Amino acid sequence: MYDFAVFILVVIFSLPVFSYSAYTVVLLAGSLAYRSPQGGGLVELPRISVLLAVYNEESAVAGAMESLAQLGYPAGRLQLVLADDSTDGTSTIVDTLAPSLVDKGIEVVVSRRHDRAGYKAGALNRAVKLVKGDLVLLVDADSRVSKEALSQGIQALSSSDLSFVSFRVGHYNREENLVTRCFALFQDAVDGLQKMGSSRLSLPFSIQGGFVLARAGALAKAGYWREGVLAEDADLSCKLFASGAKGAYLSSAQVFSEDPASLRVWKRQAARVAEGWAQCLRLDFRRILGTKSLGPLKKLGLLLTLLSPFAGLSWLVVTLATAAALVLGLIDPRSSVFGNPLYVLAVTLPVAVFYVSGLYSLSIRKMLTARNVVLLPVLSYMISAMFTISAISFLRGLAGGKGTFFRTPKKGETGVMKGDEQPPEGGPTVIAEGGLSIVAVLASIPVLLIGQFLLGLSLLAFGLVTLKSMELSRLVRHPEVSGKVGA
Fold it and tell me: What pTM, to 2 d.p., does this model score?
């Protein structure tokens, strides 16, 4: 009886993950056959509006503005529309640097609000009304755009069938520490799998807001940004594809940005994405299913992409439920799903695909060294530290909760961290993370003793890495941690 109950639980929580795993195999095949999109000839360079939203970005905004000044774009054909919600010295920096851009022939328009209604999406929706360009370059405060990348994007969009292009994410602080190296590898692998594969197979994918060049008309047709969501770029992706827009990924053209330098920050960033994607899944579900612009496979692919954060919740439920049943003697160890070769193959398939994608990404970037290859298993353990907080955030997004817009701290060119003054995760999240981590470590001992090595080692690694990522010493410095669930 207990064996059957655990089996049913495993099946329910594994089916979405198995479905996405099968989809990743399709994407991997597309990625290996990727070709960069080719555009037509250009008569003249188009007018471009750069749309940049900032909020208290003292350390990074100067670098973003200066990178635009160095593009050498023809005078009078480049416009910077800056959505500034800042309450610190960012506005002063913007106003100080604006005249130097104007001297180079760049029109600068600043949109300012007295509140953060709608978060970043609200700021962008107000500022986009000031856009004059045929093409809109979406960047973040830590984005560093190069002349070469912009040129490739313009060339690709000179083909009439493309509505937008997504640039490869570059990493200007990749070598800062182990976390930044792993984050960069993770981003490379995910882009290589999801974006290269989707682009090659003409399937939808989620864009990142600071790395996109789009037609102004396509953004207008999609309805711009939905206010209040935590992943406005994912929501915009859904709206673009549902409106009939066609996008492509430029693997050879990269826009540089700053990677999170600690596992705690990376984890909270991942949690915000998980909650934001769940919000998009809930809000855009009917739009995706109802659109005639997407075929059945494209609809399924987009929904599975938004559902991918479910993997963390699935792992927690399946792993901890199986461990509990084994420790309490409710099921025979020989009937454990982790002892079933077919199940083990199914759950390790996405890991294998991710490893292949990681190796492929390193290879095409000419970074396939022993030092970087070793990072792949290290990266796997780091990702496990995000399961609990991402699962909580994903469920919160599906339930319609209003989470916190966590801003990733940035050093920029100043070397001074800004944005890390935000308090740690809320009390329930800390309790859940710490409690599940301790349970996992304790449960791993009897599980290993009965010979369930895959399950036991997974529990042990998850528990230890999650505890490490929590940086519990910060709780002492922030005793006022609220009871709200952090996002």
Answer: 0.87
7-54 pLDDT tens trace: 677 777 778 777 888 888 999 999 999 998 877 666 688 999 999 999
Helix (H) or strand (E) holding 391: helix 387-399
**Other C-beta atoms lying within 10 Å of the C-beta of residue 43:** 7
**Shared domain check, 131 and 11:** no
Name the β-bridge partners of 165.
213, 248
Partner residues linked to 164 by β-bridges: 214, 247
Q: pLDDT tens, 181-200?
A: 999 999 999 888 899 999 99
Nearest residue to 102 (alpha-carbon basis) of 75, 67, 72? 75
- Evaluate whether residue 100 is within a structural domain: yes
Instruction: Specify whether the CB–CB gap between 35 and 117 falls below 8 A.
Output: no
Is the same domain home to 468 and 351?
yes
Block residue for tokens 């800004």: 418
CB 254 within 8 A of CB 170: yes
Same domain, 342 and 429: yes
Domain that holds residue 247: 36-261
pLDDT digits over 413-423, tens only? 555 555 544 54
Please list the alpha-helical segments (H only) found in 33-146: 61-69, 90-103, 119-127
For the beta carbon of residue 351, count every other beta carbon within 10 angstroms: 14
Task: Look at the alpha carbons of 37, 41, 45, 46 in this order and tell me if their dihedral is positive or negative.
Answer: negative
What CATH number corresponds to the domain at position 166?
Answer: 3.90.550.10
460 and 333 inside one domain: yes
For the chain, how many structural domains are there in total?
A: 2
Q: Which residue, among 313, 315, 319, 275, has the nearest Cα to 425 in the 3D structure?
A: 275
Instruction: Identify residue 448 by its one-letter amino acid code.
Output: L
- 285 domain residue, yes or no: no
Within this chain, do residues 331 and 393 fall inside the same structural domain, yes or no?
yes
